[in-house]
Amino acid sequence: MNYPFVMLVFVTITSAVMVVSHRNIIHAAVFLGLSFVGVAGMYLLLNAPFLAGAQVLIYVGAITVLILFSLMLTSQRIMREPRNALAYRLLSGAVAGVLFLMLVWTAWQPVWAVKPEVALETQNQVYLSQLADGLLGAYLLPFEIASVLLLVALVGAIVLAKEEREA
Amino acid sequence: MPLPGLSSFLVVAAGLFCVGVYGVLTRRNAVAILMGIELMLNAANLNLIAFARFTDPALMAGQVFSIFVITVAAAEAAVGLAIVICVYRNIQNINVDDINLLRW
Fold first, then answer.
1. pLDDT digit string (tens) for chain A, length 167 residues
2. Residue among B15, B49, B74 whose CB faces A46 most closely
3. B39:A19 CB<8 A
4. Total structural domains in chain B?
5. What is the ipTM of this complex?
6. What CA–CA distance (Å, rounded) separates A44 from B60?
7. Between A48, A92, A114, which is nearest B25 by CB?
């Protein structure tokens, strides 16, 4: 029994459920940040401290704040979102539930019953240099393309959100 | 404390993904739908890192790939929210049932 894992799963899944079900949409956005923190903790358990830090910085620090700002800019009058019809919600829940059961059935196939046999006690230095070798070695081209993608997204977001002034 | 097996992480990621699917299907506010998409992207990232940890701990392919997923997710969130703000400026509403300008 791994108590940190159980607690992280509880935090992540509970706040994810609150994200999709809370009527007040600002509260839903804050719960989204909490869910991201839980996922970052699971990255730590999985020996990915750099990604846990990136998760906290990018998702919790940037994307949640971006979502909160756009909610304040767009939804002042409809903080309490109207719900869809009960039948529609039940149907969506059934779709998500069936998908979940299928995924769980797949995940419990014996081929995925891998135990953490390698006690990977790498030092942080070794880990980071391996990650850097991957990013700037074998995956250099995707790395550069990602930078161009970020530039394009930056320009596109500014152009879309900029107020058009009548000349 | 022993780390739980790969299947446990896959099940958690599946749960997170399905919660995101439910949110995308039932929410009406466009920003809330984007929140559901972010949950689904996080589930995919969790899968990638779990596979990286359990199948090739020496290679960093899974972690590098999830860095790219985080990058694309950040770009998607920025552009998506800019589109939402642009729509709001035009029709003063971001309820996806009412955004039907392209329907004839």
1. 678 899 999 999 999 999 998 888 889 999 999 999 999 999 998 888 889 999 999 999 999 999 999 888 887 665 666 667 788 889 999 999 999 999 999 988 887 776 655 545 555 566 788 888 888 888 899 999 999 999 999 999 999 888 776 65
2. B49
3. yes
4. 1
5. 0.90
6. 15
7. A92
Tokens 């990255």 belong to residue? A43
- Note the pTM of the prediction, 2 decimals: 0.88
Q: What is the DSSP string of A4-36?
A: HHHHHHHHHHHHHHHHHH-SBHHHHHHHHHHHH
Residues A74 and A130 in one domain: no
Closest CA to A12 of B60, B56, B25, B19: B19
Q: Inspect the interface and report whether the beta carbons of A112 and B3 lie closer than 8 Å.
A: no
Structural domain total, chain A: 2
In a domain, A115, yes or no: no
Domain that holds residue B55: 6-91
